Amino acid sequence: MKTTISVIAFAFIYNLGISQKGQINIEQDQKINELMALYKSPKDDSDYYRIQVGFGSSSKAQEIKSNVEIDFPQLSSKIVFESPTYRVRVGRFKTKLEAERNFMEVRAKYPDAMLLKPKKSTN
User: Fold this and answer.
1) Domain boundaries of the chain, sorted by first residue
2) Transmembrane residues, as ranges (predicted)?
3) pTM for the complete prediction?
4) Is the per-residue pLDDT at 45 higher than 70?
């Protein structure tokens, strides 16, 4: 029993003696922080009017997006996930007039469509 305790004590003391202590300094270019901030910020769609044509599960959103691309090939479309649904949005309009013109066309085909205003008002 004394031998076991002695071996354990010796191993513990030996481990303390050879363990390494150190300090790590990381130096990085300031541009990395700027790039990280840019990466974390959402794509700045907040300056644009958009039209939401539908929402639902991922597969439903894909189906809606495919139909929208066929019906309105001139408008860019994308799927945005806002918990708990996927939303299909089209267009990026700088002016309210341009957005409303396109909204009338889209709404004729998709009656549930909604015009989304930018977070930062342009008018």
Assistant:
1) 48-116
2) none
3) 0.60
4) no
